[in-house]
Amino acid sequence: MGRYVFKLPDVGEGVAEAEIVSWHVKVGATIAEDDPLVDVMTDKATVELPAPKAGRVLATTGSPGDKVRVGAELVVIEVDGDGEMPAPEKPASPKPATPGSPAAAAAKPSAPAAAAAKRSAPVAAPPAAQPPEPPPKRAEPSPAPDAGEKPLASPAVRRRAYELGIPLQFIRGTGPGGRISHADLDGYMAAGGGAAAAPARASARARREGIEEIKIIGLRRRIAEHMQESKRRIPHYSYVEELDVTALEELRGELNARYAAKRPRLTLLPFLVAALAHSVPRFPQVNALFDDDGGIVRRHAALHVGIATQTAQGLMVPVLRHAEAFDLWAAAAEISRLAGAARNGKASREELTGSTITITSLGPLGGIVSTPVINYPEVAIIGVNRIVERPVVRGGAIAIRKMMNLSCSFDHRVVDGWDAAEFVQDLKALLEQPAMLFVE
After folding, report:
1. Between 317 and which of 194, 267, 306, 368 could a Cys-Cys bridge form, CB atoms 3.0 to 4.6 Å apart?
2. Total number of domains constituting the chain
3. Cα separation of 338 and 305, whole Å?
């Protein structure tokens, strides 16, 4: 038998380390070739590493959340044959010493030495008997006030007495005019009064105790690091605009009703993607990546839209690549596929990287306004808030319209406030008059 050491391979271009997400094997387990060994993650992509050899697992390195460098030892497998290195020899068991042998003589102390050791060993003195403590004296409760007297007490004292279950008529106040104070309540309780001496009442709600410690690992740690890097590097500012999406919602409802059996259902997102495809060529500074270490802004002609997606593992951003080439239904189908892959943990590294601008939407939970964090190293993010019906003034009359806010954040080093406002106003015009989306 031999041993085979499986080391962390290069799981992505330029990756120097990966984080252990979960182990599929334990020490002592018997595995076959290509059985899953461990899941590791880098750049928000989780990779399952299979066993290169069949055998028995002798050792694993690292726990979930630990980072391992490429080339470092991950698993040691006992395999048939020589493997990479021979199995270590078992140490020979020591033979018992033969009576009368020099080893036996050396192991057995001499009689004088044993006697000396016995004399020098300290002997613990028996503990002195302690007299039993007398039981504490029980103080007598304060005498009750005369029957028919109305107890005098402040609202705070009355509230506290109620919480303690103490009827105030059981207490004689020591304040001016017989007023009951907090000290009188304390004395009454110390004397053995309280709920035991008073009529029972419903107890207050139970208090919750305990602290749950959760180690931030895996995708949650990647998200934390990415957001921290974004806020540390990028001077954010947000711009919020109100949109009347009544016409857009009517068009969306009509298209969904007409093509329900033939085409994917349309949400707001495909329309917003189409609006971005129209606006970005006029405002190329928002569809860019900023290499602030190199001092280079890379404006992209292609529109690669990140779609922020909530999953059970945390927030992921799958990418709709070349969104400018999709029509409404093709965009809806691809967005649905990408979101499903992200939620099922099946999205590839390529599907989770390479966005040039990001859309984030919480749908019905979108709230009135938000200040989204830019997906570094991008320079802009588009936040979609909730659609609500409310009265607005149109043509001098009040009408019920479907209104929605766009909450967008920009990198102030790259996108000036004026340019950001013009860009959002361009999106507003397209979404309020959705027919313009179909005009080249």
Report:
1. 306
2. 3
3. 12
Statement to judge: residues 159 and 228 lie in one domain? no
275 with 194, same domain: the answer is no
N residues, the chain: 440
The CA-atom distances, in angstroms, between 387 and each of 179, 246, 351 are: 59, 10, 29
Q: What is the mean pLDDT of the chain?
A: 84
Percent helix, strand, coil in the chain (nearest 5)?
30, 25, 45
Is position 25 within any domain? yes
Indicate which residues carry an active-site annotation: 412, 416
Strand order in the sheet with 85-86: 30-31, 55-60, 73-79, 2-7, 85-86
Same domain, 340 and 424: yes
Report the range of poorest mean pLDDT among 149-163, 175-189, 411-425. 149-163
Q: Do both 273 and 382 map to the same domain?
A: yes
- Pull the structure tokens for residue 149: 């007297």
CB within 8 Å of 333: residues ≥ 6 apart: 264
Question: Residue 270's closest CA among 369, 339, 316?
Answer: 339
- The parent domain of residue 51 ranges over 2-86
Q: Which amino acid is at 169?
A: Q
